[in-house]
Amino acid sequence: MNVVFAVKQYISKMIEDSGPGMKVLLMDKETTGIVSMVYTQSEILQKEVYLFERIDSQNREIMKHLKAICFLRPTKENVDYLIQELRRPKYSIYFIYFSNVISKSDVKSLAEADEQEVVAEVQEFYGDYIAVNPHLFSLNILGCCQGRNWDPVQLSRATQGLTALLLSLKKCPMIRYQLSSETAKRLAECVKQVITKEYELFEFRRTEVPPLLLILDRCDDAITPLLNQWTYQAMVHELLGINNNRIDLSRVPGISKDLREVVLSAENDEFYANNMYLNFAEIGSNIKNLMEDFQKKKPKEQQKLESIADMKAFVENYPQFKKMSGTVSKHVTVVGELSRLVSERNLLEVSEVEQELACQNDHSSALQNVKRLLQNPKVTEFDAARLVMLYALHYERHSSNSLPGLMMDLRNKGVSEKYRKLVPTVVEYGGKRIRGSDLFSPKDAVAITKQFLKGLKGVENVYTQHQPFLHETLDHLIKAKLKENLYPYLGPSTLRDRPQDIIVFIIGGATYEEALTVYNLNRTTPGVRIVLGGTTVHNTKSFLEEVLASGLHSRSKDSSQVTSRLASRR
Amino acid sequence: MCKKCMELISLPLANKLTSASKDSLSTHTSPSQSPNSVHGSRRASISSVSSVSSVLDEKDDDRIRCCTHCKDTLLKREQQIDEKEHTPDIVKLYEKLRLCMEKVDQKAPEYIRMAASLNAGETTYSLEHANDLRVEVQKVYELIDALSKKILTLDLKQDPPPHPNTLRLQRMIRYSATLFVQEKLLGLMSLPTKEQFEELKKKRKQEVERKKILERRAALESQRRLEERRSDLVSHATNGEVVSLRGGPAPLRKAEGWLPLSGGQGQVEDSDPLLQQIHNITSFIRQAKAAGRMDEVRTLQENLRQLQDEYDQQQTEKAIELSRRQAEEEDLQREQLQVLREREREREREQFQAASLHTRTRSLDFREIRPFQLEPGREPRNHLAHALDLGCSPAQSSVAPKTPSPSSALEPIRLWSGPPALGQEFFPQSTTSQHNEVPSLNPFDEEDLSSPAAEGTASPPAAEPPLSPPACVLKEYNPFEEEEEEEAVAGNPFTSPDSPAPSPFDEEDGHPPQRPSGPPVPGSPFEEAPCTNPFEVDSESGQEDEEPIEEELLLQQIDNIKAYIFDAKQCGRLDEVEVLTENLRELKHTLAKQKRGTD
Question: Among A300, B127, B199, B541, which residue's CB has the most CB atoms within a 10 Å radius?
Answer without folding.
Answer: A300
